[in-house]
Design brief:
It is built from 12 helices and 9 strands. It has a 7-stranded mixed sheet, sandwiched between helices. With about 425 residues, the protein is of the alpha/beta class. Helix 1 runs antiparallel to helix 3 and helix 11 crosses helix 12. The chain has a domain of about 260 residues: Vaccinia Virus protein VP39 (Rossmann fold), CATH 3.40.50.150. Bound molecules: S-adenosylmethionine (SAM). S-adenosylmethionine binds next to strand 2 and helix 10. S-adenosylmethionine (SAM) binds next to strand 2 and helix 10. GO terms for molecular function: carnosine N-methyltransferase activity. It is an enzyme of class 2 (transferase). This is carnosine N-methyltransferase.
Amino acid sequence: MSSEAHTDHAEEERVHFQNVISTFNSYTQYTLAANNRRRRDIYSVPLEDQALLDALGYKKKLDDADEAILVNGDFLSQIVSQPDLFGNDNEDEEEDDTTLSEDNPANHPSHGEPSHSHRLAHAHEHAHSHGSHSHAAPGRKRKFRPTDFDMDKLRSTLKQFVRDWSEEGLSEREHCYKPMTDALVEYFSHAQMPDDRSKLRVLVPGAGLGRLAWDVANLGFSCQGNEFSHCMLLSSFFILNRTDQIGQHTLYPYVHSFSNAPNRNSILKKVYIPDVRPSDLPPTSNFSLVAGDFEEIYGTKSDPDEPQSGQWNAILTCFFLDTAKNIVNYLRIIHKILAPGGVWINLGPLLWHFENNNTNDPSIELDLEEVKMLAEQIGFDLSNTRTIDTTYTNNADSMLGYVYHAAFWTATKKG
Ligand SMILES: C[S@@+](CC[C@H](N)C(=O)[O-])C[C@H]1O[C@@H](n2cnc3c(N)ncnc32)[C@H](O)[C@@H]1O
């Protein structure tokens, strides 16, 4: 990359990062405004209907939702209160002018992180200690207004906290993470002692809020998570490095939608996080999160000073394969970086994140049979293939629930 292109890229990343921080800081105002719409709508119905709604305590529910939103907002602003950790100042905070703005779906792919081409600089460093973003020359700053798409990612992040770091998320983790860690422990059954396990290097690409990677490190393995979403990275940093007590934070993850609620408790459900002390890892464990795009860090353009080829004893992909634009490249990288005698453990659906994207990104959308055949062609032997029914960031109390029939397998390199 020329130095000019590099500067442009760094600047683009810096702006994106600032926008993510603005989104966090805009949450309260934005979400209160959405709740206020419900309040205004009461006055648009006939007076006698209003009286009936009043008798139900509907307004009181809206007031309680406001309180819950304030609590969420406080939590989210704590997460971004030290953005300098990533080498950024929260410089646009003063200018943040948040009003409800219409989402423009044309600006975004249909799912996933819209800024997939952005990654934090110095991706090869620990996500939580790096930071040398260049700062742009002073000029007129454009006001950033988070769209509903941006806010939706934040709302999803709150639910992701439940999945990864709350007692309520336990059942989901038992369905998703436990079969993977069980398979890992079984595959390396000869490594029972902490010293043996800590020599085994496990990679978790698309680590989300880091719990699967943490669980692996907690079992004594050396574990590296990889994640490229700023929203996830800021949030995982906060929970892993700035939280020291069980139940330290309170969230209301389900306050954003009043649909499919059996009762008001399901909307106003309080969730405490974390359910464990994130710092309680075995002394021998070696745990890190690396920021950046999986294909860039572990693929062909990987840092020559930090070779990846054949370096990983295990790779755990949980709800990750379908984030690929080109699944062939994902599988090829996994195959290349897996050590001889290593194991790849997968669990997830095939909700192709780039299907129907509006950003002209390519998207190869194989069915499960094709993915398995491709894995064989690339040089894997698949075993333990089975289907695991599981939810993903589910609200157990909702009248609506999605169940994925997720594909599980363990795979080794053909001998
Ligand atoms: C569906 S989520 C799954 C998160 C986590 N594994 C779990 O099971 O909760 C997929 C994650 O992969 C991340 N991701 C997607 N594409 C990525 C890429 N190319 N490099 C690194 N992370 C990526 C997303 O930001 C997101 O956090």
